[in-house]
Amino acid sequence: MESKSMQTDGAPNAADKKRISFRELAAYTGIGLITGTMLGLVLKMIQAMSGHRVYRLLLNADYVPLLGRFRLTETAEFVIHLLISAVLCALLGLIGRRIAKRRRLSASNAAAITAVVGLLIGALLYPTTLLSAGGTPPIDSLPAWTWWLAVHLLYGFVSGLLLYAALPRETKRF
């Protein structure tokens, strides 16, 4: 039995092209998990090598009212970070899909857009070090700022390339 949304020749109709598939949304979410893991591991390595507590800042959530009540393990904090990354990449994937349907979107454009988003998120999050109970880098640490922003820029760039690769073929215009 054919679905009502299929044309008689079996090809998807216009309504199907507008809907996002579970597979596509799962791909965007998976990209967030992959790039979020990359971000965390790179920041952990930088912290281990340089002593700048940028990984601690990534995981820090003691200033969030509900989360601040609990003593979270590093694993729990990392899972929260990954969930945020998965949601962010799912949203960026949906936005990229919409942009690609309206006008030409290249891999380099997608990577540049998401790199700027990553940089902006990094710039907005770094000042949360002021809200921390301790263990995060000082607000005036130029090396910590530089590492933090560079890795968030890289996160955005890689996310954009992977999200572009995950776009459905019919939305890409070469």
Structural account:
This protein is mainly α and 174 residues long. It has one domain (21-168). The chain is 65% helix and 0% strand. It is built from six helices and no strands. It has helices at 14-18, 22-50, 54-59, 74-102, 107-125, 142-166. Helix 2 runs antiparallel to helix 6. The longest helix has 29 residues, at 22-50. Mean pLDDT is 88; it is low at 1-8.
Contiguous low-pLDDT stretches (5 residues minimum) are 1-8
Ends apart, CA distance between termini: 35 Å
Number of strands: 0
Query: Helix/strand-derived class?
Result: mainly alpha
Helix content: 55-70%
Rg (C-alpha, Å): 19 Å
Shape: elongated
Instruction: Please indicate the percent range of residues in DSSP E strands (runs of 2 or more).
Output: under 5%
Number of domains: 1
Number of helices: 6
Report the mean per-residue pLDDT as an integer: 88
String of helices and strands = HHHHHH
